[in-house]
Write a structure and sequence with these properties.
It is a single chain. With 294 residues, the protein is of the alpha+beta class. It is built from eight helices and twelve strands. It has a six-stranded mixed β-sheet, sandwiched between helices. A two-stranded antiparallel ribbon has the order 4-7. It has a two-stranded antiparallel sheet with strand order 5-6. A hairpin with a 3-residue loop joins β10 (239-248) and β11. α3 packs across α4. The longest helix has 19 residues, at 12-30. The radius of gyration is 19 Å and the shape is globular.
Amino acid sequence: IYPYNNNEPDSGPDGHVKALVNLLRFLALCAAPMVGFAADINALGGDPGLRSAAVLITDANGRIIYGKDIDSVRAIASITKLMTAMVVLDAGVPLQTRIKIIEDDRDRLRNSRSRLRINEATLSRGEMIAVSVMSSDNRAAHALARTTFRGGTPAFVDAMNRKAKSLGMFNTHFADSSGLNGNNRSSAEDLVKLVRAAETYPFIREITAKGEMTVRPFADGAPLLYRNSNSLVRDLDWQIDVSKTGFINESGYCLAMQAHIDNRRVIMIFLDSPVRWAMVSDSTQVRDWLLSRN
């Protein structure tokens, strides 16, 4: 019915269990309204030939158009920051509150760089969300976790995991707010649920659709330009609602996004791409593949 490759054996006891799970998943999907590319799902034969290890392409309702190893649990790196943004926004804390970057926000796990200098940079909470999600600043993500709840970062991570469960992301676990921790893990199947949830937040749609933004975090008022880590946002051939990139060694290059293709909303998840350009290449190949079958 749809192209699907889970790279697992389809024979023996484990294979029969897997086949049953896939059948149940398909029957559940059939219960959803057929809109967008789902209406053409029977015509979508072939394989777009992608480099990412795990891929899931769905319509806006989550109906599968193409899947490859969709339920394997993998490190997701900075895709984590979509959940971070949702938890902050759910908390209802004022977005205009100014937050200072302090020593506790330094990345001691991977020694990643940030232009938000310790004990000098101050941004509003809204700006912290923006530079964290749009440009993947890790100190900003840590500062958000540190300052949202009275219980600090541990309470924030607990809230992230509760939110994941509430969204039905049962193969997902968060260990920090930035994605630097390799124990932040999920599946392509769960990340579709994350993108669908993130798309319902106007502020997240606004900041992830920006190609770039300027903030002034220092006392001298000097401008600091941040660019979207997803280069497709700046490509006029793409209309993207929500997106987030990610990379650590354990995860490879990752991309989760919702885009419009032929005036239809499509969710794309690419996990463990071998090189950065492969995310862009895979996205373009999927778009062209879908258009060729429309």
